[in-house]
């Protein structure tokens, strides 16, 4: 059955993307990403899994209340309890969607669910019928669909569409499919599900073999009209299909793909950077479209060609995806108005108080760094806005270190607005800072990883630090940036501790079926 050529972009950065190890986000961070996703033009935001934890419920509810244009989906297992919770979280959304799922492959039925095919079919229909009693926007996913018996898959899809599902999703949950085979499976499902004209067929691919985007595009060619994706391809294990790859493949090869999306491609790069800076998951430099090298031409012959005509070696213009080459933005003498205009042009939507906070931080940075670039503004917004409601907050830092000095750090920080001060030694300045912070906060996290890079070019660039911390089995990432790399390290460490605090009080109980 032929459907329209418009592909619905269903973004699951906040749900499947958050399942990337250590990528847990707090509600304010999720909301910030959701606002950016709406600006980017996604059709559906999967905001979370409300039954997983109280924190997830609150974040989904908050996002549902704020989105004006896009649909907000909540994931739930095929149980009345989960579905009720999902609906409670999204009921006030302008366009709510319930997304319920159950596995359909024999291996999942036998070993995980211990259910027969008949029982799974019955549960799926019951779940969709119950979800449809709340809203007419119901999505059903056949988990491990790519490894399910195709005839059974069609039987389940037919039954859930009859029960009220308006989208049926075929996930390649374990990233096992290959494009040609997946295209055939999608064609089979399109042909052999008699009421397929009453629903949209969606696909959701994982990247275990590096084929998630190829499989998604193959499925679109076969008639799928919803692609489930994440920014930067983050997600469970090797991740999900990346939004930027699917959208730019469709946009760059219109003769091959007549399908289109509603994405404003110029917002792709800023969104990628925001997600990376909030989750702490770095974008690999050679990553397609959003990697630091995606538009960098190293070979002389390429550079020469690009200068003569960019299309000799560039299939996409960097500006099309929002990459502005090292844009010189602002300096010490730039005023409030210039900064606010720039922030608005970048697609941020900040309140007056937030703008004032960023302006203060901007002035402080401009005293120490000659030119403030795009990357610096993103970091200022993240430091200044997203961290304001945290438990631990750095107020003062002084270190002594050098070839003949035993490293030593003095730190003042607030714990829920109560000032604490202390000083400790370490085997290096960063060790001394971390020891002092851990003593003052009475935390015992283990530092699993520490990375540092320069945010922009030049010796006056801000240092950008990422730490990975673990405490009592909970893992969290922390990020910090500052022209002083020891301060950046302290900020990253404190950010990591704040995330651990959040996770301690909002444990993410991943249901065993996910
Ligand atoms: O990978 C998967 O199967 C999922 C479903 C819940 C859609 O994430
Ligand atoms: Zn998934």
What value does the Rg take, in angstroms?
A: 24 Å
* Euclidean distance between termini CA atoms: 32 Å
Largest sheet: 8 strands, parallel, barrel
What is the approximate shape?
globular
Write a structural description.
By secondary structure, this protein is α/β, with parallel strands linked by helices. 40% of the residues lie in helices and 21% in strands. The chain has helices at 27-40, 54-66, 80-90, 106-113, 117-132, 150-163, 179-192, 212-221, 243-252, 268-279, 300-308, 336-345, 352-368, 374-386, 429-441, 485-505; strands at residues 8-11, 44-48, 71-77, 96-103, 138-143, 167-172, 200-205, 226-229, 328-331, 371-373, 392-402, 405-415, 418-425, 446-454, 463-471, 474-482. An 8-stranded parallel barrel has the order 1-2-3-4-5-6-7-8, surrounded by 7 helices. Strands 11-12-13 form a 3-stranded antiparallel sheet. Helix 6 links the parallel strand 5 and strand 6 (167-172). Helix 1 runs parallel beside helix 2, helix 7 (179-192) packs parallel to helix 8 (212-221) and helix 10 (268-279) packs across helix 14. The radius of gyration is 24 Å and the shape is globular. The relative contact order is 0.09. The protein binds 3-methyl-2-oxobutanoic acid (KIV) and zinc ion (ZN). Zinc ion is lined by residues 16, 171, 173, 204, 206, 236. Zinc ion binds next to loops.
